[in-house]
DNA sequence: CTGGATCCAGTACGATACTG
DNA sequence: CAGTATCGTACTGGATCCAG
């Protein structure tokens, strides 16, 4: 596949496929949860501790969405007290690779973006 | 850099770097505009025609944000009627690669996600 | 032609409180 | 422990109208 054809993937179907995945990992917590879950399967509370700043509500919502998309699987054990563990599905794992590619770009260019923003803002004054 | 270290890039700085770029390309139109602009520099109206469904307002906002981030450059020609052209900056071009990686993943797994969602939803009934 | 200004609906997110 | 329910806020994106 040529580079040009690859770029067309972004625009494929009016960008609907890429939109769907961006709507998921674009939200505030999903990618962070995925990256955290990549280390190991984890219980709800442990996960909340490992993702600093996330509220119960948002962790709950995020996990439910990820489960619905088939990126995370949920296993609840019939015990008292209740124990529920979350882990990435095989498909969830494959998402790590492109996500890391984006993260590398982000970390590498973050200073440039910051500089550009400050320049832009100072010109507006 | 090991795979584990790479995954940590996502969580680096509490995920701030990846968040900044996701806040940008995660919005509804930015990535579509970038992909469209990858083909060639383009005027405002032409761009609007090439990105189906985008409103004037959103194109304008999107372009200004991208310009502020240093991903797109704006050149206005002192003519009547006014002519303004947009093109990707060198940094903007480098974003194409990880974006395409994500788009490939999205297109490849879109059917699986759709299936998973339908399954999940039918179980809730 | 290239946008800026305004109004409005939907929703993402946070804080807090409550429950099996 | 692992969530759900409720409320309030702030922001996003769309439609429309206006201006240099």
UniProtKB/TrEMBL annotation, chains A, B:
<protein>
    <submittedName>
        <fullName>DNA-binding transcriptional regulator, HxlR family</fullName>
    </submittedName>
</protein>
<keyword id="KW-0238">DNA-binding</keyword>
<dbReference type="InterPro" id="IPR002577">
    <property type="entry name" value="HTH_HxlR"/>
</dbReference>
<dbReference type="Pfam" id="PF01638">
    <property type="entry name" value="HxlR"/>
</dbReference>
<dbReference type="InterPro" id="IPR036388">
    <property type="entry name" value="WH-like_DNA-bd_sf"/>
</dbReference>
<dbReference type="InterPro" id="IPR036390">
    <property type="entry name" value="WH_DNA-bd_sf"/>
</dbReference>
<feature type="domain" description="HTH hxlR-type">
    <location>
        <begin position="8"/>
        <end position="114"/>
    </location>
</feature>
<dbReference type="GO" id="GO:0003677">
    <property type="term" value="F:DNA binding"/>
</dbReference>
<keyword id="KW-0805">Transcription regulation</keyword>
<keyword id="KW-0804">Transcription</keyword>
